Amino acid sequence: MKLNICLSQVDYHKQMLQSDDDSGEDIFLPTEFDRLRAQVQGYRRRLAAATAKEQQLKRHLIEENLSFVTITYYTKLIQDPTQIYDHELTQLQREVFDKFLSRAEGCCIRECISYHRLSGRTVFNFNNNSGHPLECIRLDTFYDQTYKEPYYIVYNKNELERRRTQLKKEVEETGLPIKSLNKVTEEQPALIEHHTIPNFIAIDTLQEQHLPHNLNAFIRIIHHQLQAYIVKREILNDIATVMRERQRRNTVLRNYVYAEYHKPATPIKVLSQTESLNRVQLQFTPPIAAVYDTRLEERKGVRFFIDLEYGNPSSSYPTKISIKKIGEPSNQLNEGIKEEEEEEEEEESNFVRSLEKDLKMRRLNHVLIDILDFTADSNAIDKEMDIDQ
């Protein structure tokens, strides 16, 4: 009897120790409930992602269907789409359709603004805190079918109209010319309140000459001068870009093709230029075959000094061109050498006359780069001599 009681007590203690061990494991390891809850959360996340993907695909399908419907029945939809398709459009479809129309409207507005700006001159109201209405004139500039920076002129519209009426009345009463009556004084300050026009354009002088009686002429002259400046500036930028590319190409050929290859690294070099670009001086090294017609193998490279003056600020073409050969002719007594020099000078003179004629009719960069691309005889071109730059 006592033995059985002792065995039962031993079994009881074993069970208690085992239950203690199990409770210790539950503290650090997830239970079955925790595993199920994590699984449910994972399924919920996947379901939410799948639902979002489904909505996105539905939206794409609706956009495609609406695009087809809009193209097919564009007139009806634009007039009033809700009357015809009210029973078909769900809330999601309405959101997509409204978004489509708003984007189409924005594109049409931007397209109209672009067409309007193609004229180069646009006017819009200028918001200010001065109490009187101001108008702003935007002058767009272009080069090679590309928009460049715009310039702005802000003036007082009401003051312009008042002075125009007053000036017209004074001319009728006195019979004096407009120039003698139209003067900027302390009582009548300048009409242009703000502008971004470069300082080398005489906007104050033009204002005294043309405002308030001829605003169109004032804007046209300034716009032409701005456009001419932009074209001259971009021409020089194009030349610099082409010269950098040629220098890189010549370096590659000299390093990786054959070491004897050599051409002038910068055949067109801008020596000086004014801020307004009304005068530009360049050094030009043309190919030998472009200058001479005879004995190309014996010719040496030649450089020219080109001095361009732009007397008309509204034109991108020079009004005065001076081209001179760089270097003094050698004094030789031999008659044969003198004849060769005379022949050489005649060919150089013909080249200069042709170059001057081209520069008056075509843009500077087109003329010079076309000469550099001149190819009459590949052997003659490869024999261009070294000229210190």
Descriptive overview:
The protein has 389 residues and is of the alpha+beta class. The chain starts with a helix and ends in a 7-residue tail after the last helix. Mean pLDDT is 78; it is low at 21-25, 74-79 and 376-389. It has 13 helices and 10 strands. The longest helix is centred in the middle third of the chain and has 42 residues, at 215-256. The radius of gyration is 41 Å and the shape is flat. The protein folds into 3 domains: 59-118; 121-213, no CATH class; 263-382, no CATH class. Strands 1-2-5-6 form a 4-stranded antiparallel beta sheet. It has a 4-stranded antiparallel beta sheet with strand order 7-8-9-10, covered by helices on one side.
Portion in helices: 55-70%
Specify the overall morphology: flat
**Given the structure, what is the number of helices?**
13
Q: How do the helices and strands follow one another from N- to C-terminus?
A: HHHHHEEEEEHHEHHEEHEEHHH
Through-space gap between termini: 124 Å
Largest sheet: 4 strands, antiparallel
Give the tally of β-strands. Answer: 10
Instruction: Determine the mean pLDDT.
Output: 78
What structural class do helix, strand and pairing data support?
alpha+beta
Instruction: Provide the spatial order of strands within the biggest beta sheet.
Output: 1-2-5-6
Poorly predicted ranges: 21-25, 74-79, 376-389
Q: In total, how many domains does the architecture comprise? A: 3
What radius of gyration results from the CA coordinates? 41 Å
Strand content: 5-15%
